[in-house]
Write a structure and sequence with these properties.
- With 221 residues, the chain is an alpha/beta fold.
- The chain is built from nine helices and nine strands.
- 37% of the residues lie in helices and 24% in strands.
- The longest helix is centred in the first third of the chain and has 12 residues.
């Protein structure tokens, strides 16, 4: 039912831990797909060492949005769960998300999380935020289970979000079309924080990225 999609670009030092966490789920996903986005380290070899337990797709470097979209096109599950190559799923993640999908039939199911690395904090999401709530801040993590048909309807992640916020853009796109979002208060993901990561680059381009979101969704202001 749920396909786990792991985009990977030069994350060799973390990738084993990430894939292991996807394999160690109490309820097994339909499949685990690693998209190697033109890595120049040993990431691709690590990913391939897990075959056939995982499916590996290699592409030239096109960025995170493209890698996730490649995952969507190669996945066969009803829901896609996105996991970056340096983060970790707790073992009951798929089990708990599957329960919520069954109970709610939501288009997006977003778990709470805990940071580790350079910070250590629990982030418990607000109950089922609406589009209005997103006008002040992003209310969920990128690691959500999203119905494949909803992703195909909106065309997946936007290639226009060059420096990041592609997950925020996607959520706004889904919610402006009336899709149903449900959050889970349980901590199901460990989100790695680092001195230098993609989120820092995104924050440096905050104004420009938000302008693109407002341009694409004029009513979201």
């Amino acid at each position: 039912m749920i396909s786990i999609i792991i985009p990977s670009y030069n994350q060799g030092q973390y990738l084993t831990q990430t894939i292991d966490s996807a394999l160690d789920q109490t309820v097994k996903p339909k499949e685990i797909i690693v998209i190697d986005d033109g890595s120049t380290d040993n990431s691709l070899e690590i990913a391939k060492s897990y075959e056939p337990q995982t499916k590996v797709v290699s592409q030239v470097n096109k960025g995170l949005a493209s890698a996730r979209n490649t995952g969507i096109m190669n996945a066969t599950g009803d829901y896609m769960f996105f996991l970056d190559a340096d983060d970790i799923m707790l073992e009951n993640c798929i089990e708990r998300i599957s329960q919520v999908i069954e109970e709610t039939n939501a288009d997006v199911v977003a778990p709470s999380f805990k940071t580790f690395g350079t910070s250590n904090e629990k982030v418990v999401l607000m109950p089922n935020p609406t589009l209005e709530d997103f006008k002040t801040a992003n209310r969920i993590g990128y690691f959500s289970a999203i119905k494949k048909e909803a992703l195909l309807e909106v065309g997946g992640y936007s290639s226009r979000m060059t420096f990041g916020y592609e997950d925020f853009h996607l959520t706004v796109n889904l919610l402006t079309r009336g899709k149903k979002l449900v959050t889970i208060p349980d901590i199901l993901i460990l989100y790695r924080t680092k001195e230098k990561s993609m989120i820092h680059e995104a924050q440096e381009h905050h104004q420009e990225l938000m302008q693109q979101i407002f341009k694409d969704f004029p009513n979201f202001q």
